[in-house]
User: Which sequence fits this backbone?
C-alpha cells in the first residue's frame, strides 16, 4: 500500500498532462479540418502566392484519387495492346499505331494522349509517339505485364468495396485464383490449381529477390531453406550469389513438381532438396541454418503465422537465422502499398494482412527467437526485411 501511495502523485500529474495533449491535438485537427473544408479558404489559398503551389498539389492529389481507376485501365489497355513492345522498336505515328493495334485512328489517338499524360508514352516530332519514362521502365521488369493483367480480377472484386468490407460480396475472383485461401487442405491441390499463381509469383520475384540478396549476405550460411518458395526463383537467385550454398525448397507437393524441371534446367538439381508438404499440416525439414519467408506471412492470419514461426524456430539449426521479406505496414513511404493496396487485396483474397515490423518482431520473439530486427531495404515500397536469430545451444 505504501508503494502505491508513493507512486500515485507522479501518476496523477502524468494523466492530466497526457489528457491535455490529446484534447489540444484534437482541437487543432478540428480547426484544420474546418479550415480545409471552407470554400472561401480554398479560393483564397489558390490565389495567394505563398499557398498557390500547395493548393494546386492538393487539388491534383484529390483528382488523382478520383481518377486512379481510369489511370489503371489506361495502363491495362497499353499492356493488352502490346504498345510498350511495339514502340520499343521506335516511335510511330497515329495511323501506324492504329493499324498495328486494330484500333480506329480516333480511338488510338485518345489512348495515346491518355498514356502520354501519365508518362507511359511521350509525344515525338512529326505527330509520332514513343515510350515515356514509365513505359520504358516497365519493360525492364518482365513481371509487370503479368501483374497488370492479373489485376483485372482484383478490380472486379473491388466493384463494390462496401460489400467486400461487409462480407456480403460473395465468392471473389481472387479467392478462386489463390485456392489455398479457402480453408481447404492445401496439400491436396492439383498441379492445375497451383500453376497460375506459381507462375505469377515467379515472374514478379526478380526485384524482391535481388533486393533481399543485396541487403543480406546469404553466402555466410551452409544451407538455405525457402518455405513457400514456389518454383524456386528465389533459391536460384541465391545460388548464383553463393555457389557453395546448399538449397532446400519446401512448398505444396504440386508446386514442388513444377519447380523440379527448372532446377534441372539451371544445373542446380545436384544442390537442391525438394520437399513437398503444407506448413499448416506438416513438420518442416531440419538441417538449414538459414530459412526464408519471401512474401508468405502476409498471406495468412496471425494464428497461422505464429504457428509457422514456431515451426521454423524448431526446424532451424542452433544459431540459425530467419529472413522475412514482404510488404510491411507502418512506414509513410510504403503505407499506400501496405495499408491501401494489400489491405484490400488480401481482403478480397480471403485472409492475411500486412504487418508492421514491430508486430513481426514481437511474434518472432514469442516464437522463441533470441533476437529480431528490421534490415534496411533499397526499395521499401517493394518489400521490407526482418532478420531473426535462434539462440545457440
Assistant:
Amino acid at each position: 500500500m505504501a508503494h502505491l501511495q508513493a507512486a500515485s502523485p507522479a501518476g496523477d500529474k502524468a494523466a492530466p498532462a497526457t489528457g491535455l495533449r490529446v484534447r489540444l491535438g484534437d482541437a487543432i485537427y478540428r480547426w484544420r479540418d474546418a479550415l480545409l473544408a471552407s470554400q472561401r479558404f480554398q479560393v483564397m489559398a489558390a490565389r495567394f502566392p505563398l499557398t498557390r503551389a500547395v493548393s494546386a498539389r492538393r487539388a491534383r492529389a484529390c483528382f488523382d484519387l478520383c481518377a486512379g481507376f481510369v489511370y489503371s485501365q489506361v495502363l491495362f489497355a497499353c499492356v493488352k495492346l502490346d504498345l510498350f513492345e511495339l514502340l520499343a522498336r521506335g516511335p510511330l505515328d497515329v495511323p501506324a499505331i492504329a493499324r498495328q493495334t486494330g484500333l480506329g485512328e480516333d480511338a488510338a489517338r485518345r489512348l495515346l494522349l491518355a498514356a502520354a499524360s501519365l508518362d507511359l508514352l511521350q509525344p515525338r516530332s512529326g505527330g509520332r509517339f514513343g515510350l515515356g519514362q514509365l513505359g520504358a521502365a516497365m519493360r525492364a521488369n518482365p513481371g509487370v505485364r503479368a501483374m497488370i493483367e492479373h489485376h483485372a480480377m482484383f478490380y472486379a472484386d473491388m466493384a463494390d468495396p462496401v460489400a467486400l468490407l461487409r462480407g456480403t460480396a460473395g465468392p471473389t475472383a481472387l479467392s478462386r485464383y489463390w485456392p489455398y485461401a479457402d480453408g481447404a487442405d492445401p496439400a491436396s491441390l492439383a498441379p492445375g490449381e497451383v500453376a497460375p499463381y506459381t507462375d505469377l509469383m515467379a515472374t514478379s520475384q526478380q526485384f524482391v529477390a535481388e533486393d533481399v540478396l543485396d541487403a543480406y549476405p546469404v553466402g555466410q550460411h551452409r544451407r538455405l531453406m525457402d518455405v513457400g518458395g514456389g518454383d524456386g526463383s528465389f533459391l536460384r537467385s541465391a545460388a548464383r550469389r553463393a555457389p557453395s550454398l546448399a538449397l532446400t525448397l519446401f512448398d505444396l507437393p504440386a508446386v514442388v513438381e513444377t519447380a523440379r524441371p527448372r532446377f534441372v534446367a539451371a544445373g542446380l538439381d545436384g544442390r537442391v532438396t525438394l520437399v513437398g508438404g503444407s506448413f499448416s499440416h506438416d513438420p518442416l525439414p531440419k538441417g538449414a541454418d538459414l530459412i526464408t519467408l519471401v512474401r508468405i506471412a502476409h498471406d495468412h492470419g496471425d494464428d497461422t503465422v505464429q504457428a509457422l514461426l514456431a515451426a521454423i524456430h524448431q526446424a532451424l539449426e542452433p544459431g540459425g537465422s530467419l529472413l522475412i521479406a514482404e510488404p510491411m505496414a507502418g512506414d509513410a513511404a510504403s503505407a499506400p502499398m501496405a495499408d491501401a493496396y494489400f489491405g484490400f487485396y488480401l481482403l478480397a483474397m480471403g485472409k492475411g494482412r500486412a504487418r508492421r515490423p514491430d508486430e513481426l518482431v514481437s511474434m518472432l520473439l514469442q516464437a522463441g527467437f533470441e533476437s529480431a530486427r528490421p534490415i534496411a531495404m533499397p526499395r521499401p515500397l517493394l518489400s521490407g526485411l526482418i532478420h531473426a536469430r535462434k539462440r545457440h545451444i
